[in-house]
Amino acid sequence: MSLDHEHVVLEGDGVSGVSPNDQNAYRAYSRLMHRFADALEPFWLRTIPRIGHNSLSELLTFGQMGLNIRRLGKKDMREFLRIISLPARDLMDEYFENDVMKAMLSWDGLIGAKMAPRSPNSAVLALLYRLSGQTRGAHCIPRGGVDGLIQALCASATDSSVEVRCSATVDRIRIEGTALGLAARGVILQNGETIDADRVVSSADPRATFIDLVGARNLEIGFTNRIRRLRCDGYVAKLHLALDGLPEFKGLERPGGRMIFASDLDTLEFSYDDAKYGHSPEQPVMEAVIPSLHDDTLAPRGQHVLSAHVMYVPYALKGGWNAQARNQLCERAIDILARHAPNIREQILHQEFLTPADLEQQHRVTGGHWHHAEFSMDQMLMMRPTYQAAQYRTPISGLFLCGAGCHPAGDITGAAGHNAANEILR
Amino acid sequence: MSAYDAIIIGAGHNGLTNAAYLAKAGLKVVVLEKNEYIGGAAVSRELHEGWIYSNCSYVCSMMRQALHRDLDLSRHGLLLVPYLGTVNFGDGDERLFSYHDEEAAHLELMRHSRHDADAMHRFQADLMRYSQFIRKTLLRTPPDPTSFRPRDIRELIWLGKKLWSLGEREIYEYVRFFTMSAAEYLEDYFENDLVKAAMASPGIIGTALGVYSPGSAYILLHHVMGDVDGSIGAWGLARGGMGAISQALAGALQEHGGEIRTRAGVRQVRVRNGKATGVILDNGDEINARIVVSNLDAKRTFTRIIKKEDLPTGIFEKAQNFKIRGSSGKVNIALSGMPKFTGVPDNPYLARGGQGFTGSLETMERAFDCWKRGRWSDDPFIESVIPSAWDPTVAPPGQHWMSNFVQYCPPQLASGPWTAEKRDRFGQSVVDKIERYSPGFKDLIVHMEVRTPHELEQEVGLTEGNIFQGELTIDQLFFNRPFPGYSQYRMPLRNLYMCGSSTHPGGGVSSACGANAAREILMDLRRPNSVPEDDFYDE
Question: Hey, are the CB atoms on A81 and B362 less than 8 Å from each other?
């Protein structure tokens, strides 16, 4: 969304609102990025083996990885090896002129992470990760909200005779010493109930799993240190608005898609600058959707729901999060919306603002991090969340990880769960 | 008929090294320098009577020992003298002293944090191991990973084997080190903020990254992988200033019959049928040669001295996108006496060492934030040294000169172009900061030279004043340096080579780029090749 309401609109493979140069550049850019994303695609749905003692099939994974990149051809492979670590800003500057467009296309490389447009090393990988999958980077809204997706997964699981128990908070994982070292033997719930099992699979984030549920005394000290130092402070807050009617955004016919409120790369960068010192951003940046336009089960007829991800909101706010700090930031976020939709304030029936600290509390995700642990080169592939726990197995036999803290990462792909199941079944 | 076998454009240390090796192999070479003095950014200049400034680079560590010995630079007058200690100044009254002597260093760290004193051993040991690995690659030509030529495959396998031999855990740690930010990496080891800041400071020197930017840990490593006489990670001064390095290299070059011409700026590289055939000088003279070697940075080489239509398509754009960002300034100060710093004990070890006006991680990062916004910070990170404390040749007796390297200084200001007045205000901000730690410092100032990226570009010819001839980020390192596919010193035009810090392994007065380029050139010309591939102290 542009401040002077000359928005850049991306639809399918085309882009409007920019110069013909940028339109052509976008086609070239998009073709190249999709090629790269396709080359990486197979590896998101696969366990990345350890380096060193490899079996044939594991070596094959590495081999295929190399081959896929090699098959891009000499020219593209060189380009791939160069841009893979570029900061979003440099990549955008190489291709485009339009500031709004640069910010918009960087967004998917940055959201969820402690990364600004000038941060090297991980943004392009995050972009490529998001370009893979069924919809090739386009976003969809499941009917009934994300809850609809969860219900469908749950139904499918129940069909395969899985038992799902709610309100059964796990207090800790039961660990027993065996002749071969420590092994997980089940869980103990907060109400004191013990459930025995030969295998325990944790979808909780790695830090919560190892530090809270397993306990440092059951782990080797170097491993514990690495888990403690996992970077998992969230930088995304959630804003929900219940609206009396459909807000009118200046210069936009129908707010049916994703709207990204960041008018240029400096706005993103400076908002990150506030957050990196633990301050609440003066000018938050955000992406917003109005899912009720596509799904009438979400709001009464004629009324709407707006849902936004607000960046960069530090988990560890200096002075701590309280109602006042939260309200202040929420107001700033609504101000940004109101700049584009002047009468949105009058339409608000109810508002909710969840900081990373709130998300941590509600969902027990350490740091309230979107990906459970920062999606960055040093916490990726066979190092995600950290080595010795990266192949879904952990130093405790019978204990597995399957959450977003594992390879590949979060973003509701289901890939981590799928890969973990494969490993367990092996 | 060519007058010369090779023309080297630019008499910086890499150009001289390159020329020395070509001359040693029996080629007829000429080095062309636009200034009236040689050395590029490794120079000693008397800008105020009696004081000799190393007015660009100021310390030495990365000079390859193998080259030093092979070219016999000591006989040509090069003497490196190591630092004995360093003082790091915190934001307030805290001071961190580091000593070369291990026990003294440990006791000093204990004063700050018992934990950090222990962690330092672990940190140093880890850093040494990482630098041992990377040192092996410095004097070798990077392989092209997209090529199937036997040489590239052999080199890739060599590299793979070396990496593999580190072991699984070490490889992971290595990747972490390569990709993380200096600050976050140091959090793994230390708890005290001044200790962290002091250790992180090499991670930002010369680069347009902050201590919190991913990738800055590698730059930290880049600064500690050198050595002074085999003491890895140590820094030293060249007696007589950094110009002594260039003079020694020039001595070696001339001994082998090479020629150097000053005031001979190159206007254009002459290209015929896709081949470089010589150069045209600023004064219109033309010089023919079989090959042309550019010691200028990649951007300057391809956007300034070669016509766009002479280049294959796409190269001009690659050069324009080459990241070469000015981020540092330099303030050289002649002093009438030795400044006294508050809270620093008077001992000969600290007197013969550096001063780091570090502050804290946040102070350094905030200085970077200013750079992003096109300003200089009023509280910059300054790395200083008073060479005259142990080199009597650079200042009159009893008087001193102080070198101050300032991070950050933007190449373009948000408020418009650099002017003399703005430059002086920038210099003043540096003096003000030093005065905070050394009351009375201003009164000692006899003469001062302030250099912003603007001056560095105008005088030395470094685009934007970037001291490494190009950012040291993964996209511009190793086989990506300067551009993917052109990392083996051969450039897109036949008979054109590059030998400056824009090529592998990058900046830092190592002379490795020049030597590596010479190896490739001699290979192409089928000449006997004596350029060393291994460094002296590595196994």
Answer: no
Contact present, B142 and B157 (Cβ < 8 Å): no
Confidence of residue B523 (pLDDT cuts 50, 70, 90): very high
Of the partner residues A70, A81, A118, the one whose CB lies closest to the CB of residue B213 = A118
- Residue A53 burial by CB count (10 A; 0-12/13-18/19+): exposed, middle or buried? exposed
Q: Residue A419 corresponds to which tokens in the numbers above?
A: 């890969």
Across the range B88-101, mean pLDDT stands at 94
Split at pLDDT 50, 70, 90, the class of B537 is low
> In angstroms, what CA-CA distances link B459 with A149, B34, B206?
64, 9, 17
Q: For residues B274 and B363, give the distance between their C-alpha atoms in angstroms, rounded to a whole number.
A: 51
Q: Which of B298, B308, B264 is nearest to B498 (CA)?
A: B298
Query: Per-residue pLDDT for B314 more than 70?
Result: yes
**Chain centroid offset of residue B408 CA:** 16
Sort out which chain B residues have CB atoms less than 8 A from A67's CB and list them: none
- Mutation site for A-interface testing, chosen from B115, B146, B364, B368 by largest number of A Cβ within 10 Å: B146
Tell me the three-class secondary structure of A15-68, residue by residue. EECCCHHHHHHHHHHHHHHHHHHHHHHHHHCCCCCCCCCCCHHHHHHHHHHHHH
Dist. CA A169–CA B502, nearest whole Å: 57
Mean pLDDT over residues B346-367, rounded?
94
Q: 70-129 in A: which are within 8 Å (CB) of B?
A: 70, 74, 77-79, 81-86, 90, 93-94, 115, 118-122
A22 pLDDT higher than 70: yes
Compute φ and ψ for A233, nearest 5 degrees: -85, 125
- CATH no. of B4-79+240-322+474-524: 3.50.50.60
pTM: 0.95
Quick one: how many helices (H) and strands (E) in chain A?
Answer: 14, 12
Given this model, what pLDDT does residue A62 score? 87
Note whether B12 and B500 are within 8 A (CB).
Answer: yes
The domain spans of chain B are 4-79+240-322+474-524
CA separation (Å) from A60 to A44, A55, A424, B161, B424? 15, 9, 20, 19, 62
As a whole number, mean pLDDT of residues A187-216 equals 96
Residue entry with tokens 């995600």: A384
* Binary contact (A82, B484; C-beta < 8 A): yes
The Cα–Cα gap between A83 and B470 comes to 16
Reference A408, options A416, A396, A418, A417; nearest CA is: A416
Section A319-333 average pLDDT = 96
C-beta atoms surrounding A387 within 10 Å: 20
Give the list of residues 6+ apart from residue A418 with CB closer than 8 angstroms, or none: A45
Structure tokens at B282: 């600023």
Tokens (6 digits) for B445: 């100032």
